[in-house]
Amino acid sequence: MTAADIQIYNPDALGAPLGQYTHVTRVKASEFLFIAGMLSADPDGNVVGERDFDAQCTQVFANLHAALRSADADWSNVVQFTTYMVHSQSIPEFMAYRLREFPKMFPDGKYPPNTLLLVDRLVQEPFLVEVQTIAAV
User: Fold this and answer.
1) Domain ranges (residues) in the chain
2) Which residues are CB-neighbours of 106 under 8 A, at least 6 positions away?
3) What CA–CA distance (Å, rounded) separates 25 from 98?
4) In whole angstroms, what is the distance from residue 44 CA to residue 29 CA?
5) pLDDT digits over 7-21, tens only?
6) In angstroms, rounded to a whole number, what is the distance separating the alpha carbons of residues 79 and 107?
7) What element of type H or E holds 53?
8) Of 48, 64, 66, 97, which residue is 20 to 30 A from 104 by alpha carbon distance?
């Protein structure tokens, strides 16, 4: 299988992003992965980190990594995130999580585009954050 050609960049005309993401991903790939929104649930469906946003982020991204690894992919294959959160007050916590963790996940500093949406609730009341992912392999 040929590796995807992924270019992540910020056009000068758009200015700097407002967080740990990039404005554009250009992809030439033979295959894409569309990963459903991951929640902070363990393999048995139990909520991890109830009322603890940081713990939920940790589990969400662990679940995303497991989904990527199931297809022999890794963080470097991610071309886009869509994040759903239920409380606008969690935005600073989300930014802090990404500031701390994304440099480990994306050591080249090229963070995939991310759309952040605030929603009334997720599938179950205890969930605070959900992240959907597209990857290219």
Assistant:
1) 5-9+21-136
2) 75, 76, 112
3) 18
4) 34
5) 999 999 999 998 889
6) 15
7) helix 53-70
8) 48
CA dist., res. 69 & res. 73, Å (int): 5
The distance in angstroms from the start CA to the end CA of the chain is: 8
Band (pLDDT 50/70/90 cuts) for residue 136 is very high
In degrees, rounded to 5, the angle at the alpha carbon of residue 5 between the alpha carbons of residues 73 and 74 is 15
Contact 136, 34 (CB under 8 A): no
Q: Which pTM value belongs to this model? A: 0.91
Q: How remote is the C-alpha of 63 from its chain's centroid?
A: 10
* Residues found in the chain: 137
Instruction: Decide: 105 and 75 in contact? Cβ < 8 Å.
Output: yes
Q: Shortest CA distance to 78 belongs to which of 34, 30, 14, 38?
A: 34
Tell me, which fold does domain 5-9+21-136 have in CATH?
60s Ribosomal Protein L30; Chain: A; (3.30.1330)
Q: What does the block give as tokens for 120?
A: 């009334």
